[in-house]
Design a protein that fits this description.
By secondary structure, the protein is mainly α. It contains 18 helices and no strands. The protein has a domain of 102 residues: Serine Threonine Protein Phosphatase 5, Tetratricopeptide repeat. It is globular, with a radius of gyration of 24 Å.
């Protein structure tokens, strides 16, 4: 069935799609998903598009990408597989259509920890790109870059190094070399490989280049900036320079805070946990992240009991340590979906915070910093309940 581009129904579908793209660009993936699904419903059930119509492939691809960003990988895989089938069986598929979907599928398999399948998808994309593009094309660079990421996960470090170096070499010879944020990403990835190979000097050199390129961008990239600062922190920690490691993880947190206010993503938690870890290495006295990993402790009820017992033992004058323990209790209860306890502990923390605004027992900087952590982890509880307003 031919689609009349001037019909009111087609116009409505187009409008829904444009609204979805606007929300996607703003980072509001849930609203973007709502409107993409509305547009798809019109195409399928009102306009009765042929099941191999290219617009359906585009719609499935858009929805699959949104589900990917929402961490709903099974749904993402479902829609992207539909898009892929249409591109294979339809009449207007191009090589670039297929490579884009191969890369998207590879990204999903990477997130699902199916590294073999991810490598297969990105390798197929590279095979297609190698047939149609010249040796210095940025698409080849991207394929090598994605393969390097997967090889790094597979601990195939020699292969990862080969593809990461080739990706950067091609990128710097391509027309895309003026895209400093992309160049920065490739340099960062090569640095990660060098770090895993224990080539810390080379890793530091790549991190420095990646940072300088990102700072030269006209648009701010807080998420990537946070990742690079955290990478500096990891390098200095490996070199046992804890002071510098702390300095850079704090910079990572500042960038991640800005990013978290713009999107509903929570990379910030990773950097806050690292800050605690490094502080514990520095002072070797805290009962929190330095002694136990909350992510890998299987009996969380027992951990809650231990933290509560420790809280009772700690002197009432040790404000920082008491707030640290409350923060950890909030994290655990949130992961258990025990939201009533989360808010009970949050109220306790808020009371301590209010009582010590002008206190000799803790500096204002320490008090504000730990309270930011507590607010963030409480916000995660609202996020888990899909209460977006309170989470923000």
């Amino acid at each position: 069935m031919a689609v009349d581009l001037q019909s009111p129904t087609t116009s409505l579908s187009f409008t829904y799609n444009e609204i979805a793209i606007t929300y996607r660009n703003k980072g509001d993936n849930r609203l973007a998903l709502d409107y993409f699904l509305k547009a798809l419903d019109i195409k399928e059930n009102v306009l009765k598009c042929n099941k191999y119509h290219p617009e359906l492939a585009m719609a499935y691809n858009n929805i699959g990408e949104i589900y990917f960003h929402l961490d709903a990988y099974d749904n993402a895989l479902h829609y992207l597989t539909h898009a892929f089938e249409i591109r294979l069986k339809g009449t207007v598929a191009t090589h670039t259509d297929l490579t884009a979907i191969y890369h998207n599928l590879g990204g999903i398999y990477l997130k699902k920890k199916d590294f073999t399948k991810a490598l297969e998808m990105h390798t197929k994309a590279l095979e297609i790109d190698s047939q149609i593009f010249h040796d210095d094309h940025e698409s080849l660079a991207m394929s090598h870059h994605q393969i390097a990421i997967v090889q790094l996960e597979l601990r195939a470090l020699s292969d990862a190094l080969y593809h990461a170096e080739k990706a950067l070499r091609i990128m710097l010879r391509s027309q895309a070399k003026e895209n400093l944020s992309m160049v920065s990403t490739f340099q960062y990835n090569l640095g990660l490989v060098q770090y895993q190979l224990d080539n810390t000097r080379k890793a530091l050199k790549m991190a420095d280049k990646a940072l300088n390129n990102l700072l030269a961008c006209s648009v701010e990239h807080q998420k990537m900036m946070a990742a690079i600062y955290n990478f500096f922190s990891l390098i200095y920690e490996k070199e046992e320079d804890i002071v510098k490691a702390l300095e850079y993880v704090k910079k990572a947190i500042e960038q991640a805070k800005i990013w978290a206010t713009r999107t509903r993503t929570f990379e910030l938690e990773t950097y806050l946990a690292r800050l605690d870890q490094l502080r514990n290495r520095e002072c070797a006295k805290s009962f929190t992240f330095g002694k136990i990993s909350l992510d890998h402790f299987t009996n969380q009820d027992d951990l809650i009991r231990q933290f509560n017992e420790e809280f009772q033992r700690i002197s009432p004058t040790d404000i920082f340590e008491r707030l640290q323990l409350i923060n950890n209790l909030i994290i655990i209860c949130s992961r258990q979906n025990n939201f009533s306890l989360v808010f009970k502990y949050f109220n306790e923390a808020n009371l301590i915070y209010s009582e010590h605004q002008s206190s000799n027992l803790i500096t204002k900087e320490q008090l504000d910093e730990i309270m930011i952590n507590i607010l963030f982890n409480t916000a995660r509880s609202y996020y888990r309940q899909q209460n977006w307003t309170m989470s923000l």
